[in-house]
Amino acid sequence: PYNGMSADEIFQKRKSFLGPSLFHYYQKPLNIVEGKMQYLFDDSGRRYLDAFAGIVTVSCGHCHPDIVNAVVEQTKLLQHTTTIYLHHAIVEFAEALASKMPGNLKVVYFVNSGTEANELAMMMARLYSGNLSMIALRNAYHGGSAGTIGLTALNTWKYPLPQGEIHHVVNPDPYRGVFGSDAALYAKELQDHIDYGTPGKIAGFIAETIQGVGGAVELAPGYLKLVYDIVRKAGGVCIADEVQSGFGRTGSHYWGFETQGVIPDIVTMAKGIGNGLPLGAVVTTPEIAQVMAQKIQFNTFGGNPVCSAGGLAVLKVLDKEKRQIHCADVGSHLIERLRSLQKNHEIIGDVRGQGLMVGIELVTDREKKTPAKVETGVLFEKLKDLGVLVGKGGLHGNVFRIKPPMCFTKADADFLVDALDYAISGM
Ligand code: PMP
Hints:
- The chain is of the alpha/beta class.
- The chain is 37% helix and 18% strand.
- The protein has helices at residues 7-17, 53-56, 65-77, 88-98, 114-129, 148-151, 183-197, 223-233, 286-290, 305-320, 323-344, 373-385, 410-425; strands at 32-36, 39-42, 47-50, 107-111, 134-137, 166-169, 204-208, 210-211, 217-218, 237-241, 266-269, 280-284, 348-354, 357-365, 370-371, 388-389, 391-393, 399-402.
- The strands form 4 sheets. It has a 7-stranded mixed β-sheet with strand order 4-12-11-10-7-5-6, with helices on both faces. Strands 13, 14, 15, 17 and 18 form a 5-stranded antiparallel β-sheet that branches. A 4-stranded mixed β-sheet has the order 1-2-3-16.
- Helix 4 packs parallel to helix 10 (305-320) and helix 11 (323-344) runs parallel beside helix 13 (410-425).
- The chain is globular, with a radius of gyration of 21 Å.
- It starts with 6 loop residues before the first helix and ends with a helix.
- The mean pLDDT is 97.
- 4'-deoxy-4'-aminopyridoxal-5'-phosphate binds at residues 55, 113-115, 118, 141-143, 208, 212-213, 241, 243-244, 270.
- It catalyses: glyoxylate + L-alanine = glycine + pyruvate.
- Belongs to the class-III pyridoxal-phosphate-dependent aminotransferase family.
- Its main location: mitochondrion.
- It is found in: Mitochondrion.
């Protein structure tokens, strides 16, 4: 399949034929032509350790054979019909996904992306509650459509368009947040916001349990429990965006929200659910789903046979290969090693995360927490030169995001930490 087109030619064609708003990583963007589990290969055959998984999307590993096989076999037999006919793949996948959910979260809607999932979730919240106001957290990313950029709260992504009736509350960020780790103070701020900034009744609240694009920011412990109570008392539904934090990545639990001991009313998923297939899902209760029955809800590609076969294979692989416990094991090793690296390098302001969803925030001054923007860029290039691909995040672009395919090993973690140590030491 790789036709030999050079990186320069691809880059030129990209500029000519794709939109000008595309961004790329690295001064000289990589031309990646092949992937195998936690590794990527460029057009010269050079291997890279992939610690970002196509933005937290390749959950099981690049081109995992079980998933490739499921997709190929289904493609050969029947690619597409839509839900106007019956097909076993969509119901098998829905049943398997529902079996992973706690409480009464049993009704599944399949869509094609995280943005679509959050659009649908917001629509359900408004229809079910009869209210309009949505609350999201500052520093959140929930999508790029006209509706979901309203939920997103990072100015880099927000086009100047009407953003709907959406409010952003202070982020319960233990490192940078105004109230530190004090969940009760953040929750009080949210209550105040409902009282003073909305009609008093709201449609819903949405949050990632660990903010992804925002830079692997964990929410203050206990925050969601307090906030879910407040939101429900104000007539709203609670939405957990598990697009990045789900499927065992946090290690201790299958879903990110479980790390905060809550059960949402609606859960949205994408990315890792398909290991690279365009696939998203919304899971909710039968009661909430009932409000959608007043009209027809339809999605041409949602739950198509190929993506459903692939998605089911993902769930099976994650179980068969015990990826959740693996994430806990490798993740704690990685975090431990990064924390000891932090002792030697002033520039590492914060190491945070759970399982294989880890953030390293770089600062030029630990007291003032001044974002080390330039230095992050230099180290980012250097890591790539050393053969390690990480993500970058946060409003100031000063956080490394380590969210590899879940087959990432302790030896891979060691290589990453050693490369980072070497890169910082040489700066
Ligand atoms: N929610 C979260 C937490 C995300 O990280 C993203 C994508 N970065 C989205 C939603 C939107 O997903 P998609 O790009 O598939 O529309």
